[in-house]
């Protein structure tokens, strides 16, 4: 009997090619299978993830004069990436995040990405460029670029698969774990240094035309999604580490 993750591989193989972008109908077929996949289908256990995190925590000490030392992490479980499959047309992988872990804002140049939250709760913040085709801005990484906020919410499993496109849907996004969580990503095509699809990280420089709450701008009410933010490239902090984990689910392949 074919496993759910193998069905996902097969429909991705039929959908994603370098010769043409996928049709809306083809993407819906991929989403339908992703929507049906559960953590157990890829060898993950939410209860086990919760119990493992209990071994991590915080400590504080009082000095000889009673001075309180701020609570700091004793140690922290790293973000793990579980590799399932990759070819030139698409890749499949799972990010496992402990509570409060964050994957900073990063882009997906020329890529379609489908993300399925397998368990837990995760805050997603995502932007699209205001002028995605501005070659002058694209060629100078030192110049902050204007982006519009399109997603800013907490997702809790089970929920529908999220889809982003090369210039829409929140191509530049960040994940923050509200609880231990895992997300299955399909990237089409995958990152590739050879073809110029590099992963670039960004941070928010400042908002344009609004206060941080997005309530009043120049006397005019504006929704949060209308607020433009300047994003600048940067190197992620040293404590942002993604380790390669061991995928223990069913075999995936041609």
UniProtKB/TrEMBL annotation:
Cofactor requirements of the protein: Fe(2+)
Keyword Oxidoreductase: yes
GO MF terms held by the record: cysteine dioxygenase activity; metal ion binding
EC number(s) on file: 1.13.11.20
Record keywords, A-Z: Iron, Metal-binding, Oxidoreductase
GO biological process, one term: detection of hypoxia
CDD domains: cupin_ADO
Reactions performed catalytically: L-cysteine + O2 = 3-sulfino-L-alanine + H(+)
Claim: Signal is one of the keywords in the record: no
Alphabetized Pfam families for the sequence: PCO_ADO (PF07847)
Family: Belongs to the cysteine dioxygenase family.
PANTHER family listed in its UniProt record: 2-AMINOETHANETHIOL DIOXYGENASE
Record's protein name: cysteine dioxygenase
Organism: Marchantia polymorpha (Common liverwort)
